[in-house]
Amino acid sequence: MDNRIWLITGISSGLGKALAQSVMESGDFVIGTFRKAAQVSHFNDQYKDKGAAYQLDITQEVAIEKTVDSIISRFGRIDVLVNNAGVGFAGAVEETSMAEVRSVFEANFFGTLKMTQVVLPYFRKSKAGHIMQISSHGGIKAFAGFGIYNASKFALEGFSEALAQEVAPVGIKVSIVEPGPFRTQFAGDGLGMAQAVIADYADTAGAFRAKLKGVHGKQEGDPSKAAKAIIDLVLAEKPSLRLPLGKTAMVTIGMKIDSVKSDLERNRAIAESAVYP
Predict the structure, then answer these.
(1) Is 153 a catalytic residue?
(2) Is 135 a catalytic site residue?
(3) Catalytic residue among 149, 152, 160, 175
(4) Is the dihedral of CA 27, 28, 32, 37 positive or negative?
(5) H or E, element range at 52
(6) 175 near 132, Cβ under 8 Å?
(7) Which of 80, 108, 160, 166 could form a disulfide with 152 if both were Cys (CB 3.0 to 4.6 A apart)?
(8) What is the C-alpha to C-alpha distance for residues 127 and 108, in angstroms, rounded to an integer?
């Protein structure tokens, strides 16, 4: 198929915006979602023949169902789903209220899960399709002060890894994108903060919050280059399950792998002894 139809959630800024632009420049068609009606109108006026925009809050399950049904009714198919919409959040685990935790998970986990579930029947019918989950290097390795965000992305990665095994025989592909720090609004206006601040965590979670704010606008990652990498992954004959992006992501994910391997070897004898003879 020469011209694909991409459904990309959250294209108002950052990686989502860069990806939508790159996909349209490549000749494929973009269906993108925004939270604000004015953004939808502006996109539809600007990209009449290259894309279409819908207003959608991915934390609203019924809205997801209606939006996808409308897209299928209008365009007939979706070839690539990119679950990009989500939120950033910083704060120590103890500092974070349950309401704040639920808010993060509604966007980063439940919204993405629901969107995936709603699109899957159409992919199964055509025995094709590629689901691209935008995770983070923080979906592999946790950081003090980032635990709730980490947990939401760990959960995303968990169901996506299982999903990849479930849908492969049907002809559907799943990839998990794990960017490090990229020059977007993630560490700026897009970053949520725990309202409570506990002094005992000043040197851990507090330091992490300050670091995030300090690197805003200076991150190593180029969203346009990330977009190209994602498009290349979709075009690949055998796309990998995971795609780390950025030098920092390679370092931090490597640290996690080394840590897990070290614990495995350290506890091998104990683990192997905890079985029936």
Answers:
(1) yes
(2) yes
(3) 149
(4) positive
(5) strand 51-55
(6) yes
(7) 108
(8) 27
β-strand pairing of 130-134 with 80-83: parallel
Question: What's the full length of the chain, in residues?
Answer: 277
Q: What is the pTM for the complete model shown?
A: 0.93
Query: What is the edge-to-edge ordering of all strands in the sheet holding 130-134?
Result: 51-55, 29-34, 5-8, 80-83, 130-134, 173-179, 242-245
Name the residue with tokens 């614990």: 263
Angle of helix 223-235 relative to helix 14-25, nearest 10 degrees, comes to 50
Tell me how far apart the alpha carbons of residues 262 and 255 are, in angstroms, rounded to a whole number. 10
Q: How far apart are CA 186 and CA 146, in angstroms?
A: 13
Q: Of the candidates 12, 6, 3, 18, which has an alpha carbon nearest to the alpha carbon of residue 228?
A: 18
pLDDT digits (tens, 9 = 90+) for 80-103: 999 999 999 999 999 999 999 999
Find the angle CA(88)-CA(13)-CA(71) to the nearest 5 degrees: 100
Query: In CATH, what number does 5-248 get?
Result: 3.40.50.720
Catalytic residue among 12, 22, 135, 160: 135
Reading the block at residue 212, the tokens are: 């995030």
Q: Are 144 and 132 in contact (CB under 8 A)?
A: no
154-163, 176-185, 234-243: which has the minimum mean pLDDT? 176-185
Structure tokens at 261: 């391997």
CB 198 within 8 A of CB 94: yes
Structure tokens belonging to residue 162: 């299982």
3-state secondary structure of 245: strand
Token pair, residue 269, equals 């004898």
